[in-house]
Design goal:
- The structure is a homodimer of 137-residue chains.
- With 137 residues, the first copy, chain A, is an alpha+beta fold.
- The first copy, chain A, has a single domain, classed as Roll (CBS-domain), CATH 3.10.580.10.
- The longest helix of chain A is centred in the last third of the chain and has 11 residues.
- Chain A is globular.
- The structure holds S-adenosylmethionine.
- The site of S-adenosylmethionine (SAM) has 14 residues of chain A, from strand 3, helix 3 and strand 4.
Chain lengths: 137, 137
């Protein structure tokens, strides 16, 4: 049997990430973001600038915060988190999982070399690794 | 070396769950729930009834939904999700991870035989299993 560490290295982000990713533009209204989030398909909206580059992330957390506060915030760029923790298609799942655990976040946008958001990895996707017959760490 | 399946069975929910769990009562105001959630410590508030039993769960998603809608919702019980997916201290991590993946949720309240919420397991806690030197599947 191979040592476990070597076995686990074989699993890359691309094997369990979701290629269908709902995104939003930074100059869209918060209400647009709320609508997308409340459709329930995702809790993490990667935010793109005019060139399609990833510049932030918005979750229901940010929406709830925005509505709970008195000051008027209208655009996605007013409430998004700018310091986005991301992953890469060929990053080992170990590293991506540790990032989520360390930062206590439940999803990582998957970016390419041009910082385009090409997929998303949810913490719940890690469950696929524990499936009988599925990819395993 | 042991077969992987057997090795993985050794890891139980209690090894990576969080024993500190912030909860809320079902007759509290939504604003109380919002305050707890927006402190940012958690995105999942287990909801307890008068006897301290788990009856629901509230996330920022439910808060965002409540404020986005015209009808006035005031109590936690008006917006909480009642059909709660839970786990047990001695459930194998495989099963808990698959529940989160299957239902696309990012946390499971950990209940005892009396349906009291004694801890919480976040999907991001699965990252602990991938830590060098940490518990491993
Ligand atoms: C502290 S977390 C707690 C809630 C939940 N666990 C989550 O992942 O959204 C909420 C904050 O994390 C931010 N966030 C979520 N994913 C992120 C990521 N990949 N990088 C940076 N910030 C992120 C959100 O914008 C939000 O402000």
């Amino acid at each position: 049997a191979k040592p476990m560490r070597e076995t686990r290295k074989m699993v890359l982000v691309q094997e369990i990430m979701q290629r269908r990713v709902v995104t939003i533009k930074e100059d869209q209204d918060i209400t647009d973001a709320a609508k997308k989030l409340l459709k329930g398909e995702t809790n993490h909206l990667p935010v793109l600038n005019e060139e399609g580059r990833l510049t932030g992330v918005v979750t229901t957390f940010d929406i709830a915060k925005a509505v709970a506060r008195p000051e008027r915030k209208v655009k996605v760029q007013d409430v998004m988190t700018r310091n986005v923790i991301t992953t890469l298609v060929d990053e080992p799942i170990d590293i991506a999982a540790q990032k989520m655990e360390h930062h206590r976040i439940s999803a990582l946008p998957v970016v390419d070399a041009q910082n385009q958001c090409i997929a998303i990895l949810h913490a719940s996707d890690l469950g696929k690794l524990f499936k009988p017959g599925g990819s395993r760490p």
